[in-house]
């Protein structure tokens, strides 16, 4: 079934697809996105890429360099991010398309409000000063959300596997995959594989935007003043504590570089590959795009949306533009699900206990519990 489809990546500063631009995957030239809240430069790299635009490079020099070569990373979302101080109008308005705040019949609203209440109070004087100068580390989030429910499409054992993924990959994740508008967000400070305080590097021979953990001279001093560790692994562990996140402020007018990458999602075969376990995504896909969002959990501002969307090859013109049928499918993505044989609740004879044991067997590492223990 996967061979009938072709992938297209778009990006914009919000959820409005009419305002998105097509991202030239694996090009070293970053796309530029800006509005009254942000200035962003973006590179998206995908290993073994066979999507749009036509004749896109199948790979990037990025994947030949360390640590990506050893990690066998499959994709990267590299962001050069400069936040701007919101105007009074933008502070009073929020993005209506935010799934985590939408009303639903699920437990989503209660969970999200609970997580909001655990963050530092914005009525605190010191917090007010920090908010006036930038985005708090407790507020900047990165993750995925969806327009429609996916609970009927989740594979058997998903909730158990998700708990283990949170335990192993990113303990800072929060969300509700069973909500009417599902979401899964993590703090930017613990979600991104690399954070560089400063403008980073641009090098075509390295695939464009290139930055490792750290910062320029001023950025390193800033990190040190906030108590942030110098290595990515230690910074991610450090950022799991709310008190540590609250020390970090993404200052307005200052540039920060983020890189999100991993070896788990294969966009060529449309599969999720975890140690000892491969999940064929097409078997469970309901037609929705995979959407990555950079957002503010308190103000509800959306800064960046990156969309990975599948289109039927027959709905794409030779020049890579979408035919009317594909445009209609983009507006009504649930209709695309009719092309697939959906997995029903009774399709699996595997018990929850068996799911859990299998998930633990696939994901467990001897050093995981020690890696995220508090010092």
**What general form does the structure show?**
globular
Strand order of the largest sheet: 2-1-20-19-7-9-8
- How many H/I helices? 12
Strand elements, count: 20
Mean pLDDT: 79
Largest β sheet strand count, sense and barrel closure: 7 strands, antiparallel
Classify the beta-strand content into a percent band.
Answer: 25-35%
User: How far do the termini sit from each other?
Assistant: 48 Å
User: What structural class results from the helix and strand content?
Assistant: alpha+beta
Low confidence ranges: 100-126, 333-375
Bin the helical content. 10-25%
Q: Compute the gyration radius: what is it? A: 20 Å
Structure at a glance:
The chain contains twelve helices and 20 strands. With 375 residues, the chain is an alpha+beta fold. The strands form five sheets. Strands 2-1-20-19-7-9-8 form a seven-stranded antiparallel sheet. The chain has a six-stranded mixed sheet with strand order 3-4-5-15-10-13. The chain has a three-stranded antiparallel sheet with strand order 16-17-18, with no helix packed on it.
Report on this model:
By secondary structure, the chain is an alpha+beta fold. The protein is 24% helix and 26% strand. The protein has twelve helices and 20 strands. The protein has helices at residues 68-71, 88-92, 108-117, 125-133, 158-168, 188-191, 217-226, 232-238, 242-247, 324-331, 352-363, 368-371; strands spanning 5-12, 21-22, 31-34, 38-46, 75-83, 134-136, 140-145, 174-176, 183-187, 194-197, 201-203, 208-210, 214-215, 249-251, 256-262, 265-266, 271-274, 277-280, 290-296, 302-312. The strands form five sheets. The protein has a seven-stranded antiparallel sheet. The longest helix has 12 residues, at 352-363. The chain is globular and about 55 Å long. The termini are far apart.
């Amino acid at each position: 079934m996967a061979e009938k489809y072709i992938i297209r990546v778009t990006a914009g500063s919000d959820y409005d697809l009419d305002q998105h631009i097509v991202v030239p995957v694996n090009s070293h030239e970053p796309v530029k996105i800006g509005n009254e809240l942000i200035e962003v430069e973006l590179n998206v790299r995908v290993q073994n890429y066979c999507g749009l635009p036509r004749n896109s490079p199948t790979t990037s020099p990025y994947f030949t360099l360390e640590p990506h070569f050893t990690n066998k990373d499959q994709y990267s979302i590299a962001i050069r991010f400069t936040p701007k101080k919101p105007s009074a109008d933008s502070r009073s308005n929020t993005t209506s398309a935010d799934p985590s705040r939408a009303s639903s019949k699920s437990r989503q609203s209660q969970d999200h409000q609970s997580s909001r209440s655990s963050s530092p109070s914005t009525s605190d004087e010191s917090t007010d000063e920090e908010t006036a100068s930038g985005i708090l580390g407790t507020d900047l989030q990165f993750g995925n959300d969806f327009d429609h429910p996916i609970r009927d499409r989740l594979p058997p054992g998903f909730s158990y596997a998700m708990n283990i993924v949170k335990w192993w990959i990113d303990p800072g994740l929060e969300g509700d995959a069973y909500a009417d508008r599902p979401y899964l967000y993590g703090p930017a400070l613990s979600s991104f594989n690399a954070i560089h305080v400063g403008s980073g590097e641009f090098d075509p021979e390295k695939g464009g935007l290139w930055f490792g953990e750290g910062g320029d001279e001023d950025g390193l001093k800033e990190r040190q003043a906030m108590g942030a560790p110098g290595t990515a692994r230690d910074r991610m562990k450090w950022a799991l504590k709310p008190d540590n996140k609250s020390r970090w402020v993404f200052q307005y007018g200052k540039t920060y570089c983020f890189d999100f990458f991993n070896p788990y999602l294969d966009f060529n075969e449309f599969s999720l590959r975890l140690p000892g376990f491969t999940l064929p995504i097409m078997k469970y896909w309901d037609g929705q795009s995979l959407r990555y969002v950079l957002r503010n959990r308190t103000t509800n501002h959306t800064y960046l949306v990156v969309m990975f969307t599948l289109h039927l090859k027959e709905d794409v013109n030779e020049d890579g533009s979408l035919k009317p049928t594909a445009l209609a499918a983009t507006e009504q993505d649930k209709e695309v699900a009719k092309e697939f044989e959906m997995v029903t609740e009774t399709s699996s004879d595997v018990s929850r206990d068996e799911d859990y044991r299998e998930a633990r067997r696939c994901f467990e590492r001897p050093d995981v519990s020690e890696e995220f223990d508090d010092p």
